[in-house]
Write a structure and sequence with these properties.
Elements lengths: L1 H25 L6 H11 L5 H21 L5 H18 L12 H16 L6 H5 L7 H20 L11
């Protein structure tokens, strides 16, 4: 039953994350599309906004699809982890825990779920297993990929220009 559980978790986490990225990147599923998302990224201090919006959206889309397909082991979870760390800190951090107040609940769940799937392995019902790639992704390689995701998030946050509050007159 473990492999069926991993498949279910991968499909739900991966496909919903991919759809979340498609909302931003392509305007699908009721999303705002890249122009609006680029403006939001600019307002958060990510400049140029279009570049950061494209990278984040593409990371969500690609990471979600890789996770759902069970392809390339920890690569998809590492992409999701990276984007979710940036989202949690730059958008949700000051709003508490729960999604109802725009808190960090959703990016935290996506990040934790993705890391858990990377650490457990993607299971028998994955493209990695079908292609014989499962044994390639050793614990060291998995931790390395996740570490690169974390470093990418830290680097992205480090170059962000935090908007200054307008002076009160």
């Amino acid at each position: 039953m473990l492999d069926q559980g991993l498949l279910l978790a991968r499909l739900v986490f991966g496909l919903v994350m991919a759809a979340h990225g498609a909302q931003k990147l392509l305007g699908w599923f009721g999303g705002y599309g890249l122009d609006a998302v680029s403006s939001m990224f600019e307002s958060l201090g990510f400049r140029p906004g279009r570049l950061f919006a494209t990278l984040a959206s593409a990371g969500e889309l690609a990471g979600g699809l890789l996770l759902a397909l069970g392809l390339f082991g920890p690569a998809g979870p590492a992409l999701i982890l990276s984007v979710m760390i940036v989202a949690a800190i730059s958008v949700h951090w000051g709003h508490g825990l729960f999604a109802m107040t725009n808190g960090i609940e959703m990016p935290l769940l996506y990040a934790a779920g993705s890391v858990a799937l990377a650490l457990t392995g993607l299971g028998r019902y994955s493209l990695d297993a079908l292609l014989g790639l499962g044994s390639v992704f050793t614990p060291a390689l998995t931790w390395g990929a996740l570490g690169i995701g974390i470093l990418g998030a830290v680097g992205t946050l480090a170059i962000r220009r935090i908007p200054q509050a307008a002076p009160q007159s």
